[in-house]
């Protein structure tokens, strides 16, 4: 028996989720994409899936509908098809939209909230999943199976954890990139490296650091840091600067501001 996966919205995250499932005979995949150019592109790259401009039939209870649209467009888009949902499982991949809001729009209580991050597009993602009691054990397992194809999953204990993980798993990617930009700019402006040289070195440092952590998974990050920090050495001097400028406190405040914005979005879009 196959399971139908329908994606409302055909953007990058939608493609990241279904790309690894196209060849899996367990699923049939349909994407609702109103933009003709984007629809044509998806259909050309993935001839096995079905791409439509609208959902023109009623879904069955065993179908999964992924809500992968921009939060500011969510209410209108979901309400336009609410009479076709028929108690299917709704899976939100939208930041800032609560389960209660989606329920109010659809009168469908079978709603799962998820927050995948952008490395999902290269199967290195992190997806937080919150499934309320209205979701069966088999439905939870199926959704975890789907998101496990694009990285690791985290079972959120409550809906609030979905918003709290955004600074840690999603926004943190931009934070890391911003930190990398700082290294690159300093390499160019202070030490005279060429742009390409600085880019390549910093990207390799990040990739190598991650690989080193994974190769020594039983060792804490703090311990790994101490291994490359000699007493009274060059690295220690740099770290002392970070400590003096309270880098960890700045990071904590950035994460808090990110979380508070997620709560604001919930009020704006719900």
A few lines on this structure:
With 270 residues, the chain is α/β, with parallel strands linked by helices. It contains 10 helices and 8 strands. Strand 6 and strand 7 (125-130) form a beta hairpin.
> Distance N terminus to C terminus?
36 Å
The CATH C-level name of the largest domain is Alpha Beta
Weakly predicted, low-confidence segments = none
Mean residue pLDDT: 94
Biggest sheet, in brief? 8 strands, mixed
Hey, roughly how much beta strand do the residues contain?
5-15%
Rg (CA only):
22 Å
Give a count of the beta strands, DSSP E runs of length 2 or more: 8
What would your notes on this structure say?
With 270 residues, this protein is of the alpha/beta class. The chain folds into 2 domains: 3-156, Rossmann fold, CATH 3.40.50; 165-266, ProC C-terminal domain-like (ProC C-terminal domain-like fold), CATH 1.10.3730.10. It is 52% helix and 15% strand. It contains 10 helices and 8 strands. It has helices spanning 12-19, 36-45, 71-79, 99-106, 137-148, 159-189, 195-215, 221-227, 234-244, 247-269, and strands at 3-8, 27-32, 50-52, 64-67, 89-92, 111-116, 125-130, 151-155. The protein has an 8-stranded mixed beta sheet, with helices on both faces. α6 crosses α7 (195-215) and α6 (159-189) crosses α10. It is elongated, with a radius of gyration of 22 Å. The mean pLDDT is 94.
């Amino acid at each position: 028996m196959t399971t139908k996966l329908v994606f409302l919205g055909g953007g990058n995250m939608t493609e990241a989720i279904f790309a690894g499932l196209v060849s899996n005979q367990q699923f049939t995949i349909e994407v609702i994409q109103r933009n003709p150019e984007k629809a044509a592109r998806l259909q050309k790259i993935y001839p096995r899936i079905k791409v439509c401009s609208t959902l023109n039939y009623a879904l069955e209870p065993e179908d999964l509908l992924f809500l992968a649209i921009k939060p500011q467009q969510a209410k209108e888009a979901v309400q336009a098809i609410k009479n076709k949902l028929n108690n299917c499982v709704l899976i939100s991949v939208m930041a800032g939209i609560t389960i209660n809001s989606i329920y109010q729009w659809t009168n469908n209580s079978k709603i799962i909230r998820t927050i995948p991050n952008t490395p999902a597009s290269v199967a290195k993602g992190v997806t937080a999943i919150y499934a309320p009691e209205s979701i069966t054990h088999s439905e939870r397992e199926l959704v975890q199976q789907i998101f496990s194809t694009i990285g690791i999953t985290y079972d959120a204990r409550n809906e609030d954890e979905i918003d709290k993980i955004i600074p840690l798993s999603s926004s943190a990617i931009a934070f890391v990139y911003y930190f990398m930009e700082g290294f690159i700019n300093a390499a160019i402006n202070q030490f005279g490296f060429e742009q390409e040289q600085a880019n390549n070195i910093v990207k390799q440092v990040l990739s190598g650091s991650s690989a080193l952590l994974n190769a020594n998974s039983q060792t804490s990050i703090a311990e790994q840091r101490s291994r490359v920090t000699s007493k009274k050495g060059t690295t220690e001097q740099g770290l002392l600067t970070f400590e003096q400028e309270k880098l960890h406190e700045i990071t904590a405040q950035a994460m808090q501001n990110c979380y508070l914005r997620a709560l604001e979005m919930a009020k704006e879009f719900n």
